Amino acid sequence: MKPISHRARWVTAVFFLLTFFSAGGGTVESLVNYPTWLLIGAAEFKAYHQALGPRIVASMVLPALFATVFNVLMLWFRPSAIPRWSVWTLFILGLIGWVSTAVIQIPIQAQLDETGFSKEAIERLISTDLPLRVIPGFLRLGLAFWMLLRIMTPYAHQTSGLAPGYAGFSGLKY
Questions:
Q1: Contacts within 8 Å (CB) and 24+ apart, 139-147
Q2: I want to staple 64 with a disulfide (CB 3.0 to 4.6 A). Which of 22, 39, 85, 156 is the partner?
Q3: Tens-digit pLDDT profile for residues 66-112
Q4: Is the backbone of residue 68 left (phi > 0), alpha (psi -120 to 50) or beta?
Q5: The pTM is what?
């Protein structure tokens, strides 16, 4: 395995940090927050939603945006164990989420900000979020984890299999 350049090491490390952070935040937003919005009273919902928006931008949108930037940088700066096709695949999966966010989710969120509670709008948000952001996001997370394992497992990307003396994830030699 070729040594990893200083730049590739930092680009890759920041990419994984932002990607895994964003995946956790996105999972909570999609699978916990959106469904429980249906339990918030109509009188309180508008104020809640308006207060939530800026926090979501700071804690989820910006890290996800920077993860996308570092995803693109990995086309040029990445360890040799990470194949270019996997970087492109991550980018395309992320792009599906970004397009869905811009075209579907943001207009729904803007409607909720303006008009307040709408069971139909929240249900539409949930039903479009699953196929267009959650599933591609989980696929992206799985692929990113596979890429991380390729870096952590010496020589695993070569056809000869495991590195000499490597006994799997336990780290024990037999």
A1: 139/93, 140/19, 140/23, 140/90, 140/93, 140/94, 140/97, 141/19, 141/20, 141/23, 143/86, 143/89, 143/90, 143/93, 144/15, 144/16, 144/19, 144/20, 144/23, 144/90, 146/86, 147/82, 147/86, 147/90
A2: 22
A3: 999 999 999 999 999 999 999 999 999 999 999 999 999 999 999 99
A4: alpha
A5: 0.84
